[in-house]
Amino acid sequence: MYIASVPQAAFLAFLWLQSLESTWATPARTQGFLAIPLTKTYNLPSSQLDEPNALFANGGELAGTIQSPTADAIHSLGLDIEGDDYGYVASMLIGTPPRPFRLLVDSGSSYLWVGGEGCVMGDGSGDCSNHTLIGPQSSSTFKDTGAPFFVKYGSGPVAGHIVSDHVNFAGIDVKDLTFAVALKESRHYGLKSTLYDGILGLARLLPGQSSFPPLIDTLYEQGFIKDPIVSYKIPRRADHLDDGEVAIGAMNPAKYKAATVITLPNIGTQRFWEVSLQRVVVNGLRMTWGTRSAVLDSGSTFILGPRKDIAKVHTAIPGAQYQNGTWAVPCHTDVIISFTFGDRTFPIPARDLPFKPVDKNDPDGLCLSRIGELQGSTDSRWIVGDVFLKNIYFSTHLGKNEISIAELA
Q1: Residue 37 burial (CB < 10 Å; 0-12/13-18/19+)?
Q2: Is the CB of residue 206 less than 8 Å from the CB of residue 270?
Q3: According to the UniProt record, which cysteines are disulfide-bonded (predicted)?
Q4: Residue 312: phi, psi to the nearest 5?
């Protein structure tokens, strides 16, 4: 999830904070892996989906516990899907007694936060009681430091306090984890239609950027995981495979082709997992432009880039049209787009490009493109979300500040 303030125009692109609906299940231990179901859900009213220019990103979910895990284990959060491949959410048990909290799994932001007791919406339109909240009334182990917390996403700010409490997820049990609670949320997060209770940020933070560390730093420093690694296998609803996963502590060799792994330096200077984007090819035509980079963001449904780049991409797609600030492509396009990283090329199948029909009465006509303009962007950075990520396996290593990408198994 890209943390920035942008206009809500054609692509409400920076809403890299979205949703879930969770089903609890018993985790399975297989070859050292802990598999825990996670649910993905769209979190906005269907009326907003009918707007041709309203594009959003979303979330999924995890659940379950397992006793006495080792640091060598891969703590695996299984991913399931609702909606048309929008986003992914997880569930953690927090507090005493433990209660499940639904969290957006987001490689593009760094903080873990949930709603706090007494939370209200910043516009004064109501409280956050549609969501699970944490505080001294619901948890006997809750501790409020009183230190302020504030973060601003594209969909609005969140403000509250830094706290600690008992947290259990994916076979990991932390007695006194530091995280944040939101006491004032922008309206987007407080709405009943927002089906998650907080954000699980899995990006990094540099020293001095925060008064509490990201989750992965804590798990590694306290010996819960052997290596500060998070790995992603993003599923596709149309495949009906239920094979999505976020693995904490390692890469899962069952999910990727070992011979295809490339490991690249993270060139991001801030929180993002960012790599050099060598080449983009559309319908066999190589795009010509200067240096470009790609932020790999599981919290973004779409691919977003500078206006000129996105226009050039769509110009190479037969039948593509620009309408009201948004690109549309034929709903049955056969164009394949490929990205090259580290001299290895990874294609995006044609079926992943169309999003939603511009005219719901004409499903065979034009569909909104899942590749859109990054509003206000004048630099060379692309935001590469689930449109691309569900076609690869990718992994981030906090200690080495590296990103690995591979073909799916």
Answers
A1: buried
A2: yes
A3: 119-128, 331-367
A4: -65, -40
Residue with tokens 């954000």: 199
Could you say which of 80, 85, 106, 165 is catalytic? 106
Report d(CA 255, CA 251) in Å as an integer: 8
* Residue 364 CA to its chain's centroid (Å): 30
Task: Measure Cα distances from 60 to 16, 90, 399 in Å.
Answer: 12, 5, 26
Place of tokens 């500078």: 306
| Catalytically annotated residue among 80, 85, 173, 297 | 297
| Angle at CA of residue 142, ends 136 and 146, nearest 5° | 85
How far is CA 229 from each of CA 17, 238, 394, rounded to the nearest angstrom? 22, 28, 11
Q: Which fold has domain 254-406?
A: Cathepsin D, subunit A; domain 1 (2.40.70)
- Whether 28-248 and 254-406 share one fold: the answer is yes
pLDDT digits (tens, 9 = 90+) for 355-373: 999 999 999 999 999 999 9
Active site residue 297: yes
The alpha carbons of the chain give a radius of gyration, in whole angstroms, of 20
Question: Catalytic annotation on 80?
Answer: no
CATH superfamily of 28-248: Acid Proteases (2.40.70.10)
| Residue 138: pLDDT over 90 | yes
Q: What's the half-sphere exposure (Cβ side, CA atoms, 13 Å) at 93?
A: 18
With the C-alpha atoms ordered 172, 270, 2, 7, is the resulting torsion angle positive or negative?
positive
Position 83 pLDDT exceeds 90: no
Q: Tens digits of per-residue pLDDT, 154-209? A: 778 999 999 999 999 888 999 999 999 999 999 888 888 777 899 889 998 877 77
The domain limits of the chain are: 28-248, 254-406
Residue type, 276: S
Rounded to whole angstroms, the Cα distance separating 64 from 47 reads 34
The structure's pTM equals: 0.80
Alpha carbon of 259 to those of 194, 277, 365, 408: distances in Å? 41, 21, 40, 11
Exposure on the CB side of residue 292, measured as CA atoms within 13 A: 22
Q: Which residues contact 362 (CB under 8 A, 6 or more apart)?
A: none
Whether the upstream peptide bond of residue 97 has omega within 30° of 0, thus cis, is yes
Contact at 8 Å (CB) between 386 and 1?
no
Tokens of 337: 């787009």
Residue for token pair 């056969």? 334
- What the block records as the tokens of 218 is 């804590």
